C-alpha cells in the first residue's frame, strides 16, 4: 500500500461509467485525481475535483508527457471503445484506441518508474470478451484467451501487454471485468436501451423495443462494485490478474423480463421485436465469470444481485422519463 498521505491517481476514461464512479470513490478517500477524457466531452459529466486532461493517449509521446507531468502513484486505464458492435464497424480505430493506447500508457509508466525510482501502479480494465471463444462455460484467470471480435482482440492485446510490463517490473494488473451496469451506462448498450425503453413504454411515449439476440447469456454486475474491486487491486501490493464477476448467468430475455416487470408489464413479448440487423457477426453465447480469486485475495464480493441492478436502472429511467 502506498505510504503517501494523499496519493495521486490518473484515471483515463474519467467521464465514462466506471471512470466517474472511481473518481467519486477516490475523491472521498482524499486522493488527488487527474482524469483523461476525449476532447469535446461535456465538462459537467466529470467530477469538479478532477484535474482534467484532453489528450490522445495512442500517441506515445503524449502519454509519456502526461505521466511525467502528473507523476501518478496509481494509473487506472479505463478508457477505450467498449462496444463490441462498434468494433466490427471500425476495427482499425478499435485496435488503436484499445490496444495501442494501453501500450503507450504502460510504457510511459514504466519509463517514469525507471527515471524517478518511485513505484507506479497501473490497473488495466481488461474484458471478459477476451474469453469469448474459449468454449468454457465458467471463465477464470486461467481460461484460454480466445477473442471472437475486433473488440476482444484489442482488449487481449492490452491484457498481454500488461503481463509483459509486469514481467519487466511494473506493478501492473488486469481487471478482467465481466458486464457491469448502472444508470450511467450509455444507451448504446443493450441493457440501458432495455431499461429506458421499459420506462418509455410504461409512460406511453414508446410503442416497441427492437433487439437482436435475446438468447445471449451474460454475467451482469453493478458498476460501483466493480470500481471498488479495481481500487482494491491498486492497493493489493503486487500486479496480478483478477476476474471480476458475479458468477450468475442471465439471458438478454431475462433482462427484458425483469425490466418490464419493474414497470408493471407482465407480457413483455408483446412489445419486443427482433431485428436481424442488430445481430453481431459472431456473438459469444455464454459469458459467466468465476471471481473466487478476487474474493479470496482482495476480499471482494458483489453487493447487488441481478434483480436489484435491473430495478435500480429502471427506477432511474422512470424518473428521467417523468421529468422529460
UniProtKB/TrEMBL annotation:
Q: Which keywords label this protein?
A: Lyase
Stored SUPFAM superfamilies: NAD(P)-binding Rossmann-fold domains
Q: What class of enzyme is it?
A: lyase
Residues annotated as domain NAD(P)-binding: 10-313
Cofactor(s) named in the record:
NADP(+)
**InterPro entries, per the entry:** GDP_Man_deHydtase, NAD(P)-bd_dom, NAD(P)-bd_dom_sf
Tell me which domain of life the UniProt entry assigns to the organism this sequence originates from.
Answer: Bacteria
Query: One GO MF term, please?
Result: GDP-mannose 4,6-dehydratase activity
By its UniProt entry, which PANTHER family does this protein fall under? GDP-MANNOSE 4,6 DEHYDRATASE, GDP-MANNOSE 4,6-DEHYDRATASE
Per its record, how is this protein called by name? GDP-mannose 4,6-dehydratase
Amino acid at each position: 500500500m502506498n505510504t503517501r498521505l494523499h496519493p495521486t491517481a490518473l484515471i483515463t476514461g474519467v467521464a465514462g461509467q466506471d471512470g466517474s464512479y472511481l473518481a467519486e470513490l477516490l475523491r472521498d478517500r482524499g486522493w488527488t485525481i487527474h482524469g483523461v477524457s476525449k476532447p469535446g466531452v461535456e465538462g459537467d459529466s466529470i467530477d469538479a475535483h478532477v484535474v482534467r486532461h484532453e489528450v490522445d493517449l495512442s500517441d506515445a509521446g503524449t502519454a509519456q508527457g502526461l505521466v511525467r507531468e502528473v507523476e501518478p502513484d496509481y494509473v487506472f486505464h479505463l478508457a477505450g471503445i467498449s462496444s463490441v458492435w462498434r468494433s466490427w464497424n471500425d476495427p482499425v480505430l478499435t485496435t488503436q484506441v484499445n490496444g495501442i493506447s494501453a501500450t503507450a500508457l504502460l510504457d510511459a509508466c514504466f519509463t517514469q518508474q525507471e527515471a524517478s525510482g518511485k513505484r507506479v501502479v497501473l490497473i488495466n480494465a481488461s474484458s471478459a470478451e477476451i474469453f469469448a471463444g474459449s468454449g468454457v462455460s465458467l471463465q477464470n484467470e486461467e481460461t484460454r484467451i480466445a477473442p471472437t471480435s475486433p473488440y476482444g482482440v484489442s482488449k487481449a492485446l492490452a491484457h498481454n501487454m500488461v503481463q509483459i510490463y509486469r514481467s519487466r517490473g511494473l506493478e501492473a494488473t488486469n481487471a478482467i471485468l465481466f458486464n457491469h451496469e448502472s444508470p450511467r451506462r450509455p444507451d448504446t448498450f443493450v441493457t440501458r436501451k432495455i431499461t429506458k425503453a421499459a420506462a418509455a413504454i410504461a409512460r406511453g411515449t414508446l410503442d416497441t423495443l427492437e433487439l437482436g439476440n435475446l438468447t445471449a447469456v451474460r454475467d451482469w454486475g453493478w458498476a460501483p462494485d466493480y470500481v471498488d474491486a479495481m481500487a482494491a487491486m491498486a492497493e493489493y501490493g503486487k500486479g496480478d490478474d483478477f476476474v471480476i464477476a458475479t458468477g450468475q448467468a442471465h439471458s438478454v430475455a431475462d433482462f427484458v423480463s425483469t425490466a418490464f416487470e419493474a414497470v408493471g408489464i407482465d407480457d413483455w413479448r408483446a412489445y419486443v421485436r427482433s431485428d436481424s440487423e442488430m445481430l453481431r457477426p459472431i456473438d459469444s453465447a455464454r459469458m459467466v465469470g468465476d471471481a473466487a480469486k478476487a474474493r479470496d485475495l482482495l476480499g471482494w464480493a458483489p453487493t447487488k444481485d441481478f434483480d436489484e441492478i435491473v430495478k435500480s436502472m429502471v427506477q432511474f429511467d422512470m424518473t428521467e422519463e417523468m421529468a422529460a
